Amino acid sequence: MRSTKLLELLQIDAPIIQAPMAGVSTPEMAAAVSNAGALGSVGVGATNAEGARRMIDEFRTRSTRSLNVNVFCHQPARPDPAREANWIERLKPEFTRLGATPPTALREIYRSFVEDDEMLAMLVAKRPTVLSFHFGIPSRDRIAALRAAGIVLLGAATCVAEARALVSAGVDAVVAQGYEAGGHRGVFDTNAADDRVGTLALTRHLVREIDRPVVAAGGIMDGAGIAAILRLGASAAQMGTAFVACSESQADEGFRAALKSDAAFHTVMTRVVSGRPARGLANRFTAFGRNVAASDVPDYPIAYDAGKALHAAAKANGEFGYGAQWAGQGAPLSRAMPAGDLVALLRREILAE
User: Would 256 be classed as within a structural domain?
Assistant: First the structure.
């Protein structure tokens, strides 16, 4: 009954949400997932209102079903020229090794939804079925505007306190992001202590503590995993790494190759790539960051400006070890196939449990 309530709210048939994965998911992927009965998602945290509008429009040329649009609600970065200059200097040997020149300065490459009025206006006008928040909560007036537009709201939480704050703010369901999850850790405050609660325990905590449907996220890769979290009281599973190898994904050849290799068994939580803690496959960049203090890394997404420049320089030399190869601890269970086929397979596997 828990699943039925959420499925009706999201207007989907299966308790599966494809994680937004900004930079990896595509409108094509989201449409294939939604057409197969699950909830397809696009992440627009790395683009502006016009880019997000194009993604929604492209989805709608491919599907008339539900779409989840995900926005980043981090606190805007605090520029620190001295720390940023030191970070560039620290990365300089990596650029030199690649025969490249590091940037002379870093900028805030993404704008947070908490202050992006153009993105808010576009979303209210386009009215996607679902809007989900990551890294925090927008202001009450923004939430009120989204609710008035009839948009279902989801928010990611890594602990009970964050979940309670989301419920108080008026979300319709909470995504329980366990520590196993790939990609950026959804903590509201990156400088606060992180209890690093795993998906199963966090799901049970939230099922007991909040009066909203709970979506479990982190380490779930197949129908057996989905069935398990449903038995624990979750209403659905959100899956990201499971979709990285799909044909509609924007993952590059280096990422795909690493996901199929022994590297999939070794994931690392690191701050050095983007400025926020994020879990990805162990590679040259995560090795570089092994002994870097969090205080040395510029704020997100200023640090990401340097990370993207380093990855571009490496990729130009056929080196993929500096990419943001975000993946969760379930990565070895990844399966490469079209996204719609994966959803169909997952639905059969759930029924088989």
Answer: no
For the chain, what is the radius of gyration of the CA atoms? 19
- Does one domain contain both 267 and 158? no
φ, ψ (nearest 5 deg) of residue 67: -130, 135
Element (H, E) at 179: none
Using one digit for the tens of pLDDT, what is the confidence trace for 153-190?
999 999 999 999 999 999 999 999 999 999 999 999 99
Q: In angstroms, rounded to a whole number, what is the distance separating the alpha carbons of residues 234 and 229?
A: 6
234 inside domain = yes
pLDDT-flagged residues of the chain (< 70): 1
CB-based contact 76:139 (threshold 8 Å): no
Q: Running DSSP on this structure, what letter comes out for residue 221?
A: -
**Whole-prediction pTM value?**
0.97
CA angle 188, 90, 278 (to 5 degrees): 25
Q: Are 286 and 94 in contact (CB under 8 A)?
A: no
Would you call the peptide bond into 128 cis, given omega within 30 degrees of 0 as the criterion? no
Distance CA 332, CA 225 (A): 14
Residue 202 belongs to domain with CATH number:
3.20.20.70
Domain span at 267? 77-110+261-328
Question: Token match 């900004």: residue?
Answer: 22
The DSSP call for residue 290 is G
Assigned domain for 187 exists: yes
Domains contained in the chain, number: 2
